[in-house]
Amino acid sequence: MANQHVSDPTEHAHASHELSFWRKYVFSVDHKVIGLQYCITAWIFLLIGFSLMMLMRWQLAFPYQPVPFLGRFLSPHLAPNGVISAELYNQLGAMHGTIMVFLGIVPLAVGAFGNYLVPLQIGAPDMAFPRLNMMSYWLYLPAGLLMLASFFLPGGAAQSGWTSYPPLADINPGQTVWLLAMVIIITSSLLGSINFLVTTLNMRAKGLTLSRLPVFVWSEMVASVLLLLAFPPLEAASILQLADRVLHTSFYIPAGLVVLGVPSTATGGGQPILWQHLFWFLAHPEVYVLVLPPMGIVAEIIANNTRKPLHGYKTIVASMIAIGFMSFIVWAHHMFISGMAPALSNFFLVTTMIISVPSVAILTCFIYSLKGGSIRFTTPMLFALAFLPMFGIGGLTGLPLGISVTDIYLHDTYYVIGHFHYVVVTGSIVAMMGGVYHWFPKWFGRKMNDTLGKVHFWGTLLCMNGVFFPMFIQGMAGQDRRYWDPMTQLHNVPTQPLHVVSSISAWTLFLFQLPFIYNFFHSMFHGEKADNPWEATTLEWACPSPPPHGNFVKIPRVYRGPYEYSVPGAKTDWIAQDAPEAA
Amino acid sequence: MSSSAVAVNYPGEHSGLTNAKLGIWLFLASEVMLFATLFTSYLVIRLGSSSWPRGWEVLNVPLGTINTFVLITSSVTIILAYAKCMARDKAGFKTYMALTLALAFVFLGIKSVEWGTKFRAHHFPSTNIFFGVYFVLTGLHALHVIGGIILNSVLLFMADKHWDDPLFAGRVEAAGLYWHFVDIVWIFLLPALYLL
Amino acid sequence: MNLNYPKYGWGLPVAASTYARDIDFGIRLIHYAMFAIFILWGIFFTYLLIRYRRRDGVPAEREHEHHPIKSLMPDLIVMVFEIGLIAFYAIPVWSRIKQTFPDPKDANEINVIAEQFAWNVQYPGPDGKFGKRSPDLVHFSNPIGLDRSDPAAKDDVVLANEIHMPLGKPTLIHLMSKDVIHSFFIPSFRIKQDAVPGMDIPVWVQPTRPGLYELSCAQLCGFGHSLMRAEVVVQTPADYAAWLKSQEPAPAAAAQPQNLGF
């Protein structure tokens, strides 16, 4: 072997013994440790973001009623007598969105799953820049903590929505900390995406050509390109907004503002809509960062549990790349009624319809992959299967929002909330829950409990639909988003009972996460031992579970595509990617 | 385990570029997006603005021009430093690297004189949208210059210890690419702010 | 005449403007298509899950060849549907609603100036001309900063949270904002447009049914976002004219703009 660094496992084993606790578990440069750090941190953030929402849902279901039990712990200033005030409601709303998107799903999809699995699936000993990798995590965590700490700082947390439209965001309290935290998170994501791309392009095992990469690795690559190119505009936009707040420039402030009766001291000359363009230039590709890696996870799970190759591997990969490319030119479909020139809408209407084509192609390939299969209904497979119709609902309801004319009515109503939660919650999060069940044996050498997993699955699926489906009906009735008290409008009154349904579903959804949390930590130490329980073919299973420092005892050589299941004439119904031709 | 050693020696499939080089190019791609966004914002704000001062009437064009020459010269010296590094001439490398650093400091010095004059004339970012754009864009660029100074001085001080590391030249090359980028951004800033 | 709010329910609110029907047509059509696609797809999905569940001794069948056309068939159907929607529905209707405006001469022209957290409405009065406004003149007795020294302002009527529109005539609204972005949304009229500070965005609507309607703010604008409610009164032209006549012109502004001490 030409390379001692990689092929000598004893060196790593030896090295890992000498590492102190801090270097091994806290400031580790090992992609697996960092991946698990990301995984646990991101799930905790998801839980925090979810908790904020459960609090908001109390106000929506039972306006002006004191929050039971928790109410007395809320600041009397923000929640007099335990009743959630409008300021607190807006803080919770803005932080819910920010935490879920930037601190929850992206770090989980890219930081956790990507970090742990990409090097393993390409047969690499680690990421290309391990120290940079550590830095990504150690920027992400403090940024997240800063974001949370903003609740307790003077001025409170940001309260202008996760989209932070100026001039509101320029004048509302709490926004400065939000912007600082965002700049740090963006930097962390940029470092991560560079690392992923270099790793995947430069460190694949011999024989692992691009056309033999698992779909998951492809999805991470496309997501990394999106992060790399779409995040800097938001960074620039955030810097300009930060300048507006700290240096009193007026990039987003026009002349002649009068805020609550007081003429603004800003000199003006800026444009509020500029922020929206820059924000959505990031945030639309961001949607695909939230969706593509979970799609990759679903692809892996489906191929493994149907025991046959994916239908249309090339179509799926090409569609992912097409989505990545197109996602840069659809951003203004979030802005049909923002006041931008109406003629521009037609362009973005057309690109939006075009981007639905590769999305439909991917979903179709997943469905056709089931045909002819020998479907095992394992716990991860249940999650992957649920992803298909749920993501389907999310995608279909995007149609009336993407058509400019129907968006006039539906824009900024609960319909929009329902739409994107079907995409990212019942889509992405469900897929990533499946991913946890699927790769748990890889991470800890033990399986998660199946019965608890099924309880978790059915409870989650039911409750999620209970939370989000009523929103379509409310949106249809014209209910506006981000209302602290929807009952101020007569047309919201008839659908008020649906808020109660949503809220109760949300709280029940929380209860159904308890078996998941228990299962995770219990199985870590007491689960059934397993090495490759799913009889999966991809490279991550070619090393021991959990993999040692440096991953592969011997750097694998790849002889075939990623999903060689049920090959006629083979002894077993699967042939690992690294099994020599002879087997 | 040295991270980049893997890339150089890695026996598997790869792009043919070293990790450092591929990494820096990707990093520059994101930097291009950052500054492209800022320039686009500048254009949008300027085109939508009812009045816009002529750059040369409010800014010091001679100082800006001198700074351009300073930066371009430093781009040349960093190439020479890289050439000396490839030629295994340590003293030459150190001289040119130190010269690059010195020029970077000259750039920042002139910049601070310019900013100082503006502040004394009570021109602040909040004065009007033009000065907002001017201070934020040149300020961000100055931050990139400071980043480059840190990077280059680390290489200068690492030279003795890591001179024989096969990766050292690759790092110098990456630093050079970054420094060129900082230079190019300035070449766009000069006309955008001072001349047009 | 006695005016009432329409009955609101779970579905789309009553359609009360000329283009509400066009927008509803699209919403309905797309939803029927969505249901059809989802149900057909769901049947196929369920069939696959049952037909190809794991059975002992039955191995998975590998496909011998991949037909890219087959996997693109659903795409083709979706695409034809979408192209049809774009070409025959979205673009023409969009241009009718958002890109063509009634002639101000034939329309009832008003200014709507949004603020935290109210909708101010300026009627030009009999002279048909809006008085000048200036941010320096804004005062709580003069929320829109109307310049009383301007002759055009003499007969202007300024109201808060109350918009009157005549039947049978388009109303042309100049949408503005004093502070942050708001969004002008009358569910029954299917009209929605952001009000952006520093911009004057024209929108138009022609009500088709007399009555009271709700105007809400659809863009997060601060802590009072959900309280930003206004009443829209649609009257017969005669009633509208009588109402407008009965309105006092806005009171003269205080001589000196005062700082409210916020």
What report would you give on this structure?
The complex is a heterotrimer of chains A (583), B (196) and C (262). Chain A has helices at residues 4-7, 9-18, 21-26, 31-61, 86-121, 130-149, 168-171, 175-202, 215-246, 272-306, 313-326, 342-370, 379-396, 398-402, 404-410, 414-444, 450-476, 496-526; strands at 258-259, 262-263. Chain A is an all-alpha fold. Chain A has a single domain, classed as Cytochrome c oxidase-like, subunit I domain (Cytochrome C Oxidase, Chain A, Up-down Bundle). In chain A, strands 1-2 form a two-stranded antiparallel sheet. In chain A, helix 5 packs antiparallel against helix 9. The model of chain A is unreliable at 1-16 (pLDDT under 50). Chain B is globular, with a radius of gyration of 19 Å. By secondary structure, chain B is mostly helical. Helix content of chain C is 28%, strand content 22%. Chain C has 262 residues and is α+β, with helices and mostly antiparallel strands. Chain C has helices spanning 20-51, 68-99, 237-246; strands at 108-115, 118-123, 157-160, 162-166, 171-177, 182-186, 191-195, 201-205, 211-217, 230-235. Chain C is elongated, with a radius of gyration of 26 Å. At the A-C interface, helix 5, strand 1, strand 2, helix 10 and helix 12 of A face helix 1, helix 2, strand 7 and strand 9 of C.
